[in-house]
Amino acid sequence: MLHGGKKSYFAAVVCVIILTSTVTLSYLRLQRLSHLPKVIQEGSRCRGEITSTTITALNDNRTFIISPYFDDRESKITRVIGIVHHEDVKQLYCWFCCQPDGKIYVSKAKIDVHSDRFGFPYGAADIVCLEPENCDPTHVSIHQFSYGDVDQLPRFEIKNRKAETFSVDFTVCISAMFGNYNNVLQFIQSVEMYKILGVQKVVIYKNSCSHLMEKVLKFYMEEGTVEIIPWPITSHLKVSSKWHFSMDAKDIGYYGQITALNDCIYRNMRRSKFVILNDADEIILPLKHPDWKTMMSSLQEQHPGTGVFLFENHIFPKTVSTHVFNISSWNTVPGVNILQHVHREPDRKEVINPKKMIIDPRKVIQTSVHSVLHAYGNSVNVPMDVALIYHCRVPLQGNLPRESLIRDTTLWRYNSSLIMNVNKVLYQTVLQAGK
Protein backbone atom coordinates (compact mmCIF):
# COMPACT_ATOMS: atom_id res chain seq x y z
CA MET A 1 0.00 0.00 0.00
CA LEU A 2 2.85 2.33 0.96
CA HIS A 3 4.65 1.41 -2.26
CA GLY A 4 1.60 2.51 -4.31
CA GLY A 5 1.53 5.81 -2.42
CA LYS A 6 5.16 6.48 -3.36
CA LYS A 7 4.35 5.89 -7.05
CA SER A 8 1.39 8.29 -6.89
CA TYR A 9 3.53 10.91 -5.16
CA PHE A 10 6.27 10.55 -7.80
CA ALA A 11 3.74 10.82 -10.64
CA ALA A 12 2.29 13.99 -9.08
CA VAL A 13 5.76 15.56 -8.78
CA VAL A 14 6.51 14.73 -12.44
CA CYS A 15 3.18 16.30 -13.49
CA VAL A 16 3.93 19.48 -11.51
CA ILE A 17 7.44 19.74 -13.09
CA ILE A 18 6.03 19.25 -16.61
CA LEU A 19 3.25 21.79 -16.00
CA THR A 20 5.70 24.36 -14.52
CA SER A 21 8.13 23.88 -17.43
CA THR A 22 5.30 24.28 -19.99
CA VAL A 23 4.00 27.46 -18.32
CA THR A 24 7.54 28.90 -18.04
CA LEU A 25 8.34 28.13 -21.70
CA SER A 26 5.02 29.63 -22.81
CA TYR A 27 5.72 32.75 -20.74
CA LEU A 28 9.24 33.11 -22.17
CA ARG A 29 7.89 32.60 -25.71
CA LEU A 30 5.25 35.28 -25.14
CA GLN A 31 7.88 37.59 -23.65
CA ARG A 32 10.09 37.16 -26.71
CA LEU A 33 7.11 37.68 -29.02
CA SER A 34 6.22 40.91 -27.20
CA HIS A 35 9.78 42.16 -27.85
CA LEU A 36 9.82 41.25 -31.56
CA PRO A 37 9.93 44.25 -33.93
CA LYS A 38 6.53 45.15 -35.45
CA VAL A 39 5.92 47.26 -38.55
CA ILE A 40 3.85 50.31 -37.59
CA GLN A 41 4.34 52.44 -40.70
CA GLU A 42 5.27 51.90 -44.35
CA GLY A 43 6.61 54.05 -47.16
CA SER A 44 7.91 56.65 -44.73
CA ARG A 45 11.21 58.51 -44.71
CA CYS A 46 13.53 58.76 -41.71
CA ARG A 47 13.23 62.45 -40.94
CA GLY A 48 13.93 62.76 -37.22
CA GLU A 49 16.85 64.99 -36.31
CA ILE A 50 20.11 63.07 -35.90
CA THR A 51 21.59 63.75 -32.46
CA SER A 52 25.28 64.45 -32.02
CA THR A 53 25.40 65.25 -28.28
CA THR A 54 26.89 62.69 -25.88
CA ILE A 55 24.02 62.84 -23.36
CA THR A 56 20.47 63.32 -24.67
CA ALA A 57 17.49 63.64 -22.33
CA LEU A 58 14.23 62.07 -23.48
CA ASN A 59 10.94 63.91 -22.90
CA ASP A 60 10.30 62.03 -19.64
CA ASN A 61 13.49 63.62 -18.18
CA ARG A 62 14.08 60.30 -16.42
CA THR A 63 15.91 58.66 -19.35
CA PHE A 64 19.21 59.85 -20.81
CA ILE A 65 20.63 58.27 -23.97
CA ILE A 66 24.39 58.07 -24.44
CA SER A 67 24.79 55.91 -27.55
CA PRO A 68 23.35 52.81 -29.28
CA TYR A 69 25.66 49.97 -30.35
CA PHE A 70 25.06 46.98 -32.61
CA ASP A 71 25.70 43.76 -30.67
CA ASP A 72 25.45 40.41 -32.44
CA ARG A 73 27.36 38.29 -29.92
CA GLU A 74 24.19 36.37 -28.97
CA SER A 75 21.44 37.65 -31.23
CA LYS A 76 20.93 40.63 -33.53
CA ILE A 77 20.26 43.46 -31.09
CA THR A 78 20.77 47.17 -30.59
CA ARG A 79 22.19 47.83 -27.12
CA VAL A 80 21.69 51.43 -26.05
CA ILE A 81 23.94 52.67 -23.24
CA GLY A 82 21.94 55.07 -21.10
CA ILE A 83 21.14 56.43 -17.65
CA VAL A 84 17.68 55.84 -16.18
CA HIS A 85 15.79 56.37 -12.95
CA HIS A 86 15.68 52.84 -11.55
CA GLU A 87 12.02 53.07 -10.41
CA ASP A 88 10.33 55.60 -12.67
CA VAL A 89 11.38 54.20 -16.07
CA LYS A 90 9.23 51.12 -16.69
CA GLN A 91 8.83 50.98 -20.46
CA LEU A 92 10.78 52.08 -23.52
CA TYR A 93 10.62 51.27 -27.23
CA CYS A 94 13.19 51.30 -30.02
CA TRP A 95 11.97 52.82 -33.27
CA PHE A 96 13.97 51.55 -36.24
CA CYS A 97 13.62 53.06 -39.70
CA CYS A 98 14.55 50.66 -42.50
CA GLN A 99 15.70 52.19 -45.77
CA PRO A 100 15.11 52.16 -48.70
CA ASP A 101 11.59 50.68 -48.18
CA GLY A 102 10.84 53.19 -45.40
CA LYS A 103 9.26 50.70 -43.00
CA ILE A 104 9.19 51.83 -39.37
CA TYR A 105 9.67 48.95 -36.92
CA VAL A 106 9.03 49.28 -33.20
CA SER A 107 10.62 46.91 -30.66
CA LYS A 108 9.79 46.82 -26.96
CA ALA A 109 13.03 47.33 -25.04
CA LYS A 110 14.37 45.28 -22.18
CA ILE A 111 15.62 47.81 -19.60
CA ASP A 112 18.54 46.38 -17.67
CA VAL A 113 19.64 48.77 -14.89
CA HIS A 114 23.13 47.77 -13.77
CA SER A 115 23.27 46.25 -10.30
CA ASP A 116 26.08 48.55 -9.09
CA ARG A 117 23.97 51.66 -8.50
CA PHE A 118 25.33 52.17 -4.96
CA GLY A 119 21.98 53.49 -3.69
CA PHE A 120 21.64 56.40 -6.13
CA PRO A 121 18.22 56.75 -7.85
CA TYR A 122 19.82 56.96 -11.33
CA GLY A 123 22.12 54.31 -12.71
CA ALA A 124 23.77 53.01 -15.84
CA ALA A 125 21.38 50.97 -17.97
CA ASP A 126 21.38 48.82 -21.08
CA ILE A 127 18.27 49.46 -23.18
CA VAL A 128 18.22 46.35 -25.36
CA CYS A 129 16.06 45.85 -28.47
CA LEU A 130 15.78 43.05 -31.01
CA GLU A 131 16.45 44.38 -34.50
CA PRO A 132 14.26 43.67 -37.56
CA GLU A 133 15.48 40.48 -39.23
CA ASN A 134 15.38 41.72 -42.82
CA CYS A 135 17.03 45.11 -42.23
CA ASP A 136 20.26 46.49 -40.75
CA PRO A 137 19.10 49.81 -39.34
CA THR A 138 21.71 52.56 -39.17
CA HIS A 139 19.77 54.75 -36.72
CA VAL A 140 17.32 54.27 -33.85
CA SER A 141 14.99 56.48 -31.82
CA ILE A 142 14.03 55.72 -28.20
CA HIS A 143 10.50 56.52 -27.04
CA GLN A 144 8.27 55.79 -24.04
CA PHE A 145 5.46 54.65 -26.35
CA SER A 146 4.93 52.28 -29.28
CA TYR A 147 2.95 55.00 -31.09
CA GLY A 148 3.58 58.64 -31.99
CA ASP A 149 5.18 60.80 -34.66
CA VAL A 150 8.57 59.38 -35.64
CA ASP A 151 9.61 62.74 -37.15
CA GLN A 152 9.48 64.32 -33.69
CA LEU A 153 11.89 61.81 -32.14
CA PRO A 154 15.67 62.37 -32.02
CA ARG A 155 17.60 59.74 -33.98
CA PHE A 156 20.84 58.14 -32.82
CA GLU A 157 23.42 56.48 -35.04
CA ILE A 158 23.92 52.80 -34.20
CA LYS A 159 27.68 52.38 -33.79
CA ASN A 160 29.71 49.18 -34.41
CA ARG A 161 27.47 48.27 -37.35
CA LYS A 162 30.47 47.67 -39.60
CA ALA A 163 33.18 45.17 -38.73
CA GLU A 164 36.55 46.87 -38.34
CA THR A 165 40.09 45.60 -38.05
CA PHE A 166 41.81 46.62 -34.82
CA SER A 167 43.45 49.99 -35.29
CA VAL A 168 45.13 49.88 -31.86
CA ASP A 169 46.32 47.33 -29.30
CA PHE A 170 45.62 49.30 -26.11
CA THR A 171 43.09 52.03 -25.28
CA VAL A 172 42.88 53.66 -21.84
CA CYS A 173 39.42 54.86 -20.72
CA ILE A 174 39.44 57.72 -18.20
CA SER A 175 36.10 58.70 -16.70
CA ALA A 176 35.35 61.29 -15.75
CA MET A 177 37.52 64.43 -15.73
CA PHE A 178 35.70 66.87 -13.46
CA GLY A 179 36.05 69.54 -10.77
CA ASN A 180 38.01 71.95 -12.99
CA TYR A 181 40.77 69.32 -13.11
CA ASN A 182 44.24 70.90 -12.95
CA ASN A 183 46.71 68.13 -12.00
CA VAL A 184 48.62 68.92 -15.20
CA LEU A 185 52.05 67.45 -14.46
CA GLN A 186 50.75 64.11 -13.19
CA PHE A 187 48.34 63.85 -16.12
CA ILE A 188 51.16 64.37 -18.67
CA GLN A 189 53.36 61.88 -16.79
CA SER A 190 50.55 59.30 -16.78
CA VAL A 191 49.83 59.69 -20.52
CA GLU A 192 53.55 59.46 -21.34
CA MET A 193 53.84 56.33 -19.16
CA TYR A 194 50.83 54.80 -20.94
CA LYS A 195 52.55 55.49 -24.29
CA ILE A 196 55.84 53.93 -23.09
CA LEU A 197 53.88 50.86 -21.93
CA GLY A 198 52.07 50.48 -25.26
CA VAL A 199 48.95 52.66 -25.41
CA GLN A 200 47.94 54.24 -28.70
CA LYS A 201 44.68 55.89 -27.57
CA VAL A 202 43.46 57.58 -24.37
CA VAL A 203 39.70 58.29 -24.25
CA ILE A 204 38.66 60.94 -21.72
CA TYR A 205 35.07 61.68 -20.68
CA LYS A 206 35.50 65.37 -19.87
CA ASN A 207 33.15 67.31 -17.65
CA SER A 208 35.42 70.21 -16.69
CA CYS A 209 39.09 71.12 -16.46
CA SER A 210 41.35 74.18 -16.15
CA HIS A 211 42.42 76.41 -19.04
CA LEU A 212 45.96 75.01 -18.81
CA MET A 213 44.66 71.46 -18.90
CA GLU A 214 42.64 72.35 -22.03
CA LYS A 215 45.91 73.38 -23.68
CA VAL A 216 47.50 70.01 -22.85
CA LEU A 217 44.44 68.08 -24.07
CA LYS A 218 44.49 70.04 -27.36
CA PHE A 219 48.15 69.05 -27.85
CA TYR A 220 47.38 65.36 -27.29
CA MET A 221 44.31 65.49 -29.54
CA GLU A 222 46.37 67.01 -32.37
CA GLU A 223 49.02 64.35 -31.76
CA GLY A 224 46.31 61.70 -32.13
CA THR A 225 46.73 60.17 -28.67
CA VAL A 226 43.71 61.62 -26.87
CA GLU A 227 40.03 61.44 -27.84
CA ILE A 228 37.72 63.71 -25.85
CA ILE A 229 34.12 62.68 -25.22
CA PRO A 230 32.19 65.69 -23.86
CA TRP A 231 30.46 64.62 -20.63
CA PRO A 232 27.98 67.37 -19.62
CA ILE A 233 26.23 65.24 -17.00
CA THR A 234 25.97 68.21 -14.61
CA SER A 235 23.56 69.86 -17.09
CA HIS A 236 21.09 67.00 -16.65
CA LEU A 237 21.39 65.60 -13.13
CA LYS A 238 22.45 66.51 -9.59
CA VAL A 239 25.83 64.81 -9.52
CA SER A 240 27.79 63.44 -6.57
CA SER A 241 31.59 63.29 -6.40
CA LYS A 242 31.16 60.38 -3.94
CA TRP A 243 30.68 56.73 -4.86
CA HIS A 244 27.75 55.96 -2.48
CA PHE A 245 24.35 57.64 -1.96
CA SER A 246 24.80 57.52 1.87
CA MET A 247 27.80 59.88 1.53
CA ASP A 248 26.04 62.44 -0.67
CA ALA A 249 22.34 62.12 -1.52
CA LYS A 250 22.31 63.24 -5.15
CA ASP A 251 20.87 61.76 -8.40
CA ILE A 252 23.90 59.78 -9.57
CA GLY A 253 27.30 58.80 -8.20
CA TYR A 254 30.78 59.93 -9.16
CA TYR A 255 29.83 61.96 -12.24
CA GLY A 256 28.18 58.97 -13.92
CA GLN A 257 31.53 57.17 -14.08
CA ILE A 258 30.05 53.68 -14.54
CA THR A 259 27.96 54.75 -17.55
CA ALA A 260 31.00 56.37 -19.16
CA LEU A 261 33.12 53.22 -18.62
CA ASN A 262 30.48 51.03 -20.26
CA ASP A 263 30.17 53.43 -23.18
CA CYS A 264 33.95 53.43 -23.57
CA ILE A 265 34.04 49.62 -23.77
CA TYR A 266 31.42 49.48 -26.54
CA ARG A 267 32.90 52.50 -28.33
CA ASN A 268 36.24 50.66 -28.59
CA MET A 269 34.91 47.12 -29.01
CA ARG A 270 35.69 46.89 -32.71
CA ARG A 271 38.82 49.03 -32.84
CA SER A 272 40.99 48.12 -29.83
CA LYS A 273 42.40 44.72 -28.88
CA PHE A 274 42.43 45.63 -25.18
CA VAL A 275 40.78 48.35 -23.10
CA ILE A 276 42.28 49.57 -19.80
CA LEU A 277 39.85 50.95 -17.23
CA ASN A 278 41.69 53.20 -14.77
CA ASP A 279 41.91 56.79 -13.51
CA ALA A 280 44.40 59.46 -14.60
CA ASP A 281 46.37 59.08 -11.35
CA GLU A 282 46.78 55.31 -11.84
CA ILE A 283 49.33 53.37 -13.90
CA ILE A 284 49.37 49.57 -14.27
CA LEU A 285 53.08 48.90 -13.80
CA PRO A 286 54.44 45.56 -15.08
CA LEU A 287 57.15 44.06 -12.86
CA LYS A 288 58.14 41.01 -14.92
CA HIS A 289 57.74 42.49 -18.40
CA PRO A 290 58.94 45.69 -20.09
CA ASP A 291 55.50 46.68 -21.43
CA TRP A 292 51.83 45.75 -21.59
CA LYS A 293 52.05 43.87 -24.89
CA THR A 294 54.53 41.28 -23.62
CA MET A 295 52.72 41.10 -20.25
CA MET A 296 49.32 40.48 -21.86
CA SER A 297 50.73 37.87 -24.29
CA SER A 298 52.12 35.98 -21.30
CA LEU A 299 48.89 36.33 -19.25
CA GLN A 300 46.70 35.19 -22.17
CA GLU A 301 48.96 32.20 -22.72
CA GLN A 302 48.59 31.21 -19.05
CA HIS A 303 44.83 31.93 -18.96
CA PRO A 304 43.31 31.09 -22.38
CA GLY A 305 39.74 32.33 -22.87
CA THR A 306 40.04 34.94 -20.12
CA GLY A 307 38.62 38.36 -21.00
CA VAL A 308 39.18 40.27 -17.75
CA PHE A 309 42.50 40.80 -15.96
CA LEU A 310 42.33 42.50 -12.56
CA PHE A 311 45.27 44.42 -11.08
CA GLU A 312 45.62 45.36 -7.42
CA ASN A 313 45.63 49.01 -6.42
CA HIS A 314 48.51 50.29 -4.26
CA ILE A 315 48.68 53.80 -2.79
CA PHE A 316 51.88 55.84 -3.19
CA PRO A 317 51.07 58.84 -0.96
CA LYS A 318 51.84 62.20 -2.51
CA THR A 319 52.60 63.51 1.02
CA VAL A 320 55.80 61.40 1.17
CA SER A 321 58.47 62.40 -1.32
CA THR A 322 62.11 61.96 -2.23
CA HIS A 323 64.47 64.71 -3.47
CA VAL A 324 65.57 62.60 -6.44
CA PHE A 325 64.19 63.88 -9.77
CA ASN A 326 63.46 67.34 -8.40
CA ILE A 327 63.42 68.92 -11.87
CA SER A 328 63.37 72.71 -11.52
CA SER A 329 61.40 73.45 -14.73
CA TRP A 330 58.64 71.11 -13.53
CA ASN A 331 58.18 73.04 -10.28
CA THR A 332 56.23 75.77 -12.08
CA VAL A 333 53.72 73.26 -13.48
CA PRO A 334 50.62 72.54 -11.33
CA GLY A 335 50.31 68.93 -10.22
CA VAL A 336 52.23 66.05 -8.70
CA ASN A 337 55.65 64.79 -9.88
CA ILE A 338 55.16 61.01 -9.63
CA LEU A 339 58.92 60.29 -9.90
CA GLN A 340 59.33 61.77 -6.40
CA HIS A 341 56.77 59.42 -4.81
CA VAL A 342 58.16 55.89 -4.55
CA HIS A 343 56.94 54.81 -1.11
CA ARG A 344 53.80 52.71 -1.00
CA GLU A 345 51.46 51.98 1.83
CA PRO A 346 51.61 48.43 3.23
CA ASP A 347 48.61 46.14 2.85
CA ARG A 348 46.09 46.08 5.69
CA LYS A 349 44.89 42.64 6.77
CA GLU A 350 41.27 43.70 7.15
CA VAL A 351 41.07 45.66 3.86
CA ILE A 352 40.87 44.21 0.34
CA ASN A 353 42.70 46.43 -2.14
CA PRO A 354 40.40 47.54 -4.97
CA LYS A 355 41.28 46.44 -8.49
CA LYS A 356 41.36 48.03 -11.93
CA MET A 357 41.23 46.14 -15.22
CA ILE A 358 42.65 45.35 -18.60
CA ILE A 359 39.85 43.73 -20.60
CA ASP A 360 39.09 42.21 -23.96
CA PRO A 361 36.10 44.44 -24.81
CA ARG A 362 34.46 41.78 -26.99
CA LYS A 363 34.15 39.54 -23.93
CA VAL A 364 32.48 42.12 -21.64
CA ILE A 365 28.74 42.83 -21.46
CA GLN A 366 28.54 45.14 -18.42
CA THR A 367 31.22 46.57 -16.16
CA SER A 368 31.43 48.31 -12.82
CA VAL A 369 34.50 50.25 -11.64
CA HIS A 370 36.49 47.51 -9.90
CA SER A 371 35.08 44.39 -11.58
CA VAL A 372 32.90 43.37 -14.50
CA LEU A 373 29.23 42.56 -13.83
CA HIS A 374 28.60 40.32 -16.87
CA ALA A 375 31.15 38.83 -19.26
CA TYR A 376 31.89 35.86 -21.49
CA GLY A 377 34.81 33.86 -20.08
CA ASN A 378 36.73 34.23 -16.84
CA SER A 379 38.19 37.02 -14.74
CA VAL A 380 41.72 36.54 -13.39
CA ASN A 381 43.44 38.32 -10.49
CA VAL A 382 46.95 39.17 -11.67
CA PRO A 383 49.54 38.48 -8.91
CA MET A 384 51.38 41.46 -7.47
CA ASP A 385 54.76 40.11 -8.58
CA VAL A 386 53.55 40.38 -12.22
CA ALA A 387 52.08 43.90 -12.04
CA LEU A 388 50.53 46.40 -9.65
CA ILE A 389 48.68 49.68 -9.93
CA TYR A 390 50.87 52.65 -9.05
CA HIS A 391 48.31 55.07 -7.57
CA CYS A 392 49.76 58.40 -6.46
CA ARG A 393 47.21 60.32 -4.38
CA VAL A 394 46.41 61.49 -0.84
CA PRO A 395 47.26 58.73 1.66
CA LEU A 396 44.70 56.27 2.98
CA GLN A 397 46.95 55.44 5.98
CA GLY A 398 48.01 58.99 6.74
CA ASN A 399 49.27 58.32 10.27
CA LEU A 400 51.94 55.83 9.23
CA PRO A 401 55.55 56.93 9.78
CA ARG A 402 57.78 56.97 6.70
CA GLU A 403 59.70 53.88 7.87
CA SER A 404 56.48 51.83 7.79
CA LEU A 405 56.06 52.53 4.06
CA ILE A 406 57.61 50.23 1.43
CA ARG A 407 60.16 51.81 -0.88
CA ASP A 408 59.25 50.70 -4.42
CA THR A 409 61.21 52.28 -7.27
CA THR A 410 59.72 50.20 -10.14
CA LEU A 411 58.66 53.46 -11.81
CA TRP A 412 62.29 54.59 -12.02
CA ARG A 413 63.04 51.87 -14.59
CA TYR A 414 61.35 54.20 -17.09
CA ASN A 415 62.78 57.48 -15.78
CA SER A 416 65.02 58.54 -18.72
CA SER A 417 62.32 57.98 -21.40
CA LEU A 418 59.65 59.50 -19.15
CA ILE A 419 61.64 62.69 -18.37
CA MET A 420 62.54 63.21 -22.03
CA ASN A 421 58.94 62.70 -23.22
CA VAL A 422 57.39 64.85 -20.47
CA ASN A 423 59.83 67.70 -21.22
CA LYS A 424 58.89 67.54 -24.90
CA VAL A 425 55.17 67.94 -24.09
CA LEU A 426 55.75 70.64 -21.46
CA TYR A 427 57.86 72.77 -23.81
CA GLN A 428 55.17 72.58 -26.49
CA THR A 429 52.31 73.40 -24.13
CA VAL A 430 52.79 74.76 -20.60
CA LEU A 431 56.32 76.18 -20.79
CA GLN A 432 55.99 78.08 -24.09
CA ALA A 433 57.38 81.57 -23.56
CA GLY A 434 54.80 84.32 -23.57
CA LYS A 435 51.83 82.02 -24.17
From TrEMBL:
<protein>
    <recommendedName>
        <fullName>Glycosyltransferase family 92 protein</fullName>
        <ecNumber>2.4.1.-</ecNumber>
    </recommendedName>
</protein>
<dbReference type="InterPro" id="IPR008166">
    <property type="entry name" value="Glyco_transf_92"/>
</dbReference>
<keyword id="KW-1133">Transmembrane helix</keyword>
<keyword id="KW-0808">Transferase</keyword>
<dbReference type="Pfam" id="PF01697">
    <property type="entry name" value="Glyco_transf_92"/>
</dbReference>
<keyword id="KW-0812">Transmembrane</keyword>
<keyword id="KW-0328">Glycosyltransferase</keyword>
<dbReference type="GO" id="GO:0016757">
    <property type="term" value="F:glycosyltransferase activity"/>
</dbReference>
<keyword id="KW-0472">Membrane</keyword>
<dbReference type="GO" id="GO:0005737">
    <property type="term" value="C:cytoplasm"/>
</dbReference>
<feature type="transmembrane region" description="Helical">
    <location>
        <begin position="9"/>
        <end position="28"/>
    </location>
</feature>
<dbReference type="GO" id="GO:0016020">
    <property type="term" value="C:membrane"/>
</dbReference>
<comment type="similarity">
    <text>Belongs to the glycosyltransferase 92 family.</text>
</comment>
